[in-house]
Write a structure and sequence with these properties.
By secondary structure, this protein is an alpha/beta fold. It has a single domain, classed as TIM Barrel. The strands form two sheets. A twelve-stranded mixed beta sheet has the order 9-10-11-8-7-6-5-4-3-12-13-14. Strands 1-2 form a two-stranded antiparallel ribbon. α1 packs parallel to α2 and α3 runs parallel beside α5. The chain is globular and about 55 Å long. The structure holds S-adenosylmethionine and iron/sulfur cluster. The site of iron/sulfur cluster (SF4) has 13 residues, from loops.
C-alpha cells in the first residue's frame, strides 16, 4: 500500500519512521488542514422520507452501482492507512443496507490495532433495536440518532414513513447495550421550533447530548426550503431565556459548537452551516456508496475512487487518487438560503453524501 513519491504530490507521501519502516504520510490539504475524519455513506436508500432530506418518490441508484462491502472496507482501510482516525458510517439509512454488520465487524480491526480512534454511525434509529448489541460488539461506542420531535404524529409527518415508538425502542436498546447516544434534530420553522425546549429536557433526563442542525440546501425536495429554515442563532437566544448555556470547548472532531446546559448537565451542540462558517477547521471528507469522494459537503467537485480501486488489486492507484483529491479540497462552501437563492446550492441530496 504505497504511493508513488514522484507523482507530483504537494508533500512527500512517504516518510521513514526511526525504526526504518515506510509509512504513508498523513493527508494534509492545501490549507494545512489534516484530514482525519471520513464519513461514508454506505447506501443512498432509506426506510424514511424526511421532508427536508428526500422527496417522497426518490429514484435510488441501481444496486449494481454500489460498491460491495469488501470494497468499502478496502477504501476505508486505505484512508485509515493515510491517517484517518475517525470513521462515521451514514447514508441514506446505513442500517438498511444488507449485511452491513459485516462492514462494522471488519472495520473494528482498526480499533483493535489502535490505528483508528473511533468507529461510529448516524442512524434514524428504526433498526437500532435489532443491531445495537452487535454494533457494540464490533467496537462502536457512540451513535447519533436523528429525532426531530417527540410527538408521534409530527414524527410521522416529518419522516413520512417513520414510527417514533420504534425509534425510541432503538434508543433504549442502544443505551442498554452500553452505547452512548447523541440525538440530532433538524430545527424546522413552524414544525418543531416550539418543542426544542422539551427535547432538550428529555435528552437531559436520559443522559443524551443533543445537537441541533440548521437545514442545508442540499438536493431537490418537494417543499420550499425558505419555509423550513430556522436560524439556530434565534433558537439559541430563545433557549437562553429558560436555560443557562455555558460555552464549552468540547469538540467531537465535527463542526458542532457546544454549550453545557447548567440545568440538565447535558451538552447542546449547534451545527450552523448558514449562520456560522465552520470551514476553517474542516478535517473531513465524504465518500459515497459508489466510491465518489466529496472534499466539501457544499461544493460539487468530487473524485472518483471506484475506478482506481477496481483497476489495481494493490492500493497504489487508490492512494494516489486520494492524495490528488485532497490536494483539491476547497477552502469552504457557500450555502445560501434566501428568496433569491431558492434552489439547492448543491443538487445532490444529503442522503447521497451522508449527513
Ligand atoms: N438516515 C440517517 C439519519 O437520518 O440519521 C443518516 C443519514 S441523514 C442524511 C444524516 C443527518 O442529516 C440526519 O440527522 C438528518 O436529519 C440530517 N439531514 C438530512 N437532510 C438535511 C438537510 N437538508 N439539512 C440539514 N440536515 C439534514
Ligand atoms: Fe432517511 Fe436520514 Fe434522510 Fe431521513 S434524514 S430521509 S432518515 S437519510
Amino acid at each position: 500500500m504505497r504511493g508513488n513519491p514522484d507523482a507530483g504530490n504537494l508533500y512527500n507521501p512517504r516518510e521513514t519512521k526511526p525504526h526504518g519502516c515506510l509509512v504513508e504520510a498523513m493527508l494534509i490539504d492545501p490549507f494545512q488542514r489534516a484530514i482525519s475524519y471520513l464519513r461514508v455513506s454506505v447506501t443512498d436508500r432509506c426506510d424514511f422520507r424526511c421532508v427536508y432530506c428526500m422527496s417522497e418518490h426518490m429514484t435510488f441508484l441501481p444496486k449494481a452501482e454500489l460498491l460491495t462491502l469488501e470494497e468499502l472496507d478496502r477504501l476505508c482501510s486505505a484512508f485509515v492507512a493515510l491517517g484517518v482516525r475517525k470513521l462515521r458510517i451514514t447514508g441514506g439509512e446505513p442500517l438498511v443496507r444488507r449485511d452491513i454488520m459485516t462492514l462494522f465487524h471488519a472495520l473494528g480491526r482498526h480499533l483493535r490495532s489502535g490505528t483508528l480512534d473511533e468507529l461510529t454511525l448516524t442512524t434514524n434509529g428504526s433498526q437500532l433495536a435489532r443491531y445495537a448489541a452487535e454494533l457494540k460488539g464490533a467496537g462502536v461506542r457512540r451513535v447519533n440518532v436523528s429525532v426531530d420531535t417527540l410527538d408521534p404524529a409530527k414524527f410521522t409527518a416529518i419522516t413520512r414513513w417513520g414510527k417514533l415508538d420504534r425509534v425510541l425502542e432503538g434508543i433504549s436498546a442502544a443505551k442498554a447495550a452500553g452505547l452512548k447516544v447523541k440525538i440530532n434534530a433538524v430545527a424546522l420553522k413552524g414544525v418543531n421550533e416550539d418543542e426544542i425546549e422539551d427535547l432538550l429536557r428529555w435528552c437531559g433526563e436520559r443522559g443524551h447530548d443533543l445537537t441541533l442542525i440548521e437545514t442545508m440546501p442540499l438536493g431537490e425536495i418537494d417543499q420550499d426550503r425558505t419555509d423550513q429554515y430556522l436560524p439556530l442563532s434565534l433558537v439559541r437566544a430563545r433557549l437562553a431565556r429558560r436555560f443557562t448555556l455555558d460555552d464549552s470547548d468540547h469538540r467531537t472532531g465535527g463542526p458542532a459548537r457546544y454549550v453545557t446546559v447548567r440545568e440538565t448537565g447535558g451538552r447542546l451542540g449547534f451545527i450552523t452551516p448558514l449562520t456560522h462558517n465552520f470551514c476553517e477547521s474542516c478535517n473531513r471528507v465524504r465518500l459515497t456508496c459508489t466510491g465518489t469522494l466529496y472534499m466539501c459537503l457544499g461544493q460539487e467537485d468530487a473524485a472518483d475512487l471506484r475506478a482506481p480501486l477496481r483497476a489495481d488489486p494493490g492500493d497504489a492507484q487508490l492512494i494516489e487518487a486520494i492524495r490528488e483529491a485532497i490536494a483539491r479540497k476547497p477552502k469552504g462552501h457557500d450555502f445560501v438560503i434566501d428568496r433569491r437563492h431558492n434552489r439547492p446550492a448543491v443538487s445532490r441530496h444529503m442522503s447521497v453524501t451522508g449527513g
